[in-house]
Amino acid sequence: MAEDASFAELVALLRKDSPAVSPTPAVGVARAVETAEPAKPTEDIPKPDQLKRFFESAPVLLAEVRNLFAEINRVQNSPRQQKIFEELEQKVCAVKNLARLPELLPTSQLTTALLGLLKQLASKPANVTPSTLRTAGGAVAVLEALARPGTRPDLVTTPSPRFLVVDDDQVSRLAVALALRKALPQPDLAAGGEAALALVEKQTYDVIFLDVEMPGMDGYELCTRIHQSASNHTTPVIFITRHCDFDSRAKSTRSGGHDLIGKPFLSFEITVKALTFVLRNRLKLRHETSTFVKPDGVASTPEAAVPPGDFTGSFFTCAPSHLQFLRNELQAVRQSTDPEVREEKLGNIYVSVQSLAWEAERAELRSISRLSSTLQAFVKKLLETPDSVAPSNLDAIADTLDLLDELCVGELNPDLSSPALRVLVVDDDAIARRTISAAVQVALTQPDTAESGTETLALTAEKAFDLIFLDVQMPGMNGFATCSKIHETALNRHTPVVFITEHSDSNSRSQGAAAGGAGFIPKPALPSEITLRALTFAVRGGINRRPPNQVREKPEETQPCSV
Length: 563
Description:
Layout: H1 2-13, H2 30-36, H3 47-72, H4 79-98, H5 105-123, H6 130-146, E1 163-166, H7 170-181, E2 188-190, H8 193-202, E3 207-211, H9 219-226, E4 237-241, H10 246-254, E5 259-262, H11 267-284, H12 286-289, E6 292-293, E7 299-300, H13 311-335, H14 339-362, H15 366-384, H16 391-409, E8 423-426, H17 430-443, E9 448-450, H18 453-462, E10 467-471, H19 479-486, E11 497-501, H20 506-514, E12 519-522, H21 527-545
Parallel strand pairs: 1-2, 1-3, 3-4, 4-5, 8-9, 8-10, 10-11, 11-12
Antiparallel strand pairs: 6-7
């Protein structure tokens, strides 16, 4: 009955001519509403002031919601989880109460749907899965975009959204269709790949829900072929499957899928996912069809909108929130002692970084694409041996995410091909030297090598290097002393030096920092970590060497971003 009541409220809000309805706060919401609303009735407050209050208060509340989602990922299956869901309902309901104006109808619609999903999650711990949490988190990201001026009130309903459900199992197909049509238009249905392809050639869809395991053409192949069609080459595809491991999610991303819902699914999960993707895509196209409403209620032209056809601009708009998600997942890995939780979070990072690399490649941001792909390969190696994940491995991921954030905030795309980078590898052990050199060559170029501190100083006196990998334990002059002397040379005074050593205790790290080291990789080092470190330093060096105004390249066709 509670679910039906939530759907009834959502249906009312999804009518084209429906104004935002009066709030009916759930139990325990009063305190959050009081902090978001003044004591004076909103009907007595001028509309411009109500809009201003929403655009000032909603982002703050949504930031708190995002932090709560980050916490709930760390406390699954604990008494704290129920408390967090209560806080989430309070905060989301407070945002909904602030959005009671017709101008803010999309926010009312999405918050109502999200509250329905949160109630389903709070009512039964078994409903809390990585799939449902991703769905709820995705809705919060869209709400943050809606909490800025400029959204059309009829964004969801004009034009009426169209959905396609593809599943060879009739029961599953009808179950998805029923979940959709509780609040949204009746979807088209297809029992297999050929029937689906016939439909996508005739009709453009807003979202396609697609089963993976089907006879003949499976969902992955069908997804690829759907995106080859003229009318649906950018349509979001949501896979619905029993296989929710990170390999399945990675395969769905490679085939062009935008997200994945695990079976069995919740009715509100389908609704929230559908609304989220409809809004995401239409928000990216709003500069073509809408005017912006500022907090004072005056319409304005979309001066800050991404220009039509600017694929790169779309990437830089989406990337910061995606990188924040990655940092949250990495923090969860650091804090958790549960091997299953750590593996799940690393899997989330792997899939999300793959999506980031794919979007960067489409935007022709070569440095970001290479850096993301190299990070993905490193995380995959960690997933293959989760018990051996060390703090230095997580530090390497964090450093790469920081660099990606720097690139995205500055909208930078440094050229790594010119001039050619020069790297030096120093190790008295021939096998270690060859291993490190091979890992460097994967990312950059064939490095120079040296066997001792004395030979290193001779080379650095003659050549300028962009990066030096340096062993610590060497006969004669050790790595720390060598590093100090390298930075006394005219050509390599500021060259970053990364130590690679069997001694990774705090005393050794302190010595390395005192000697001017820029990084620390304990032995035995993963070649993929060396590759990642080499590329990270190369890209950072490329930022410093970039010519003026080397930021963005020629815009391409606008595409929805799935990062």
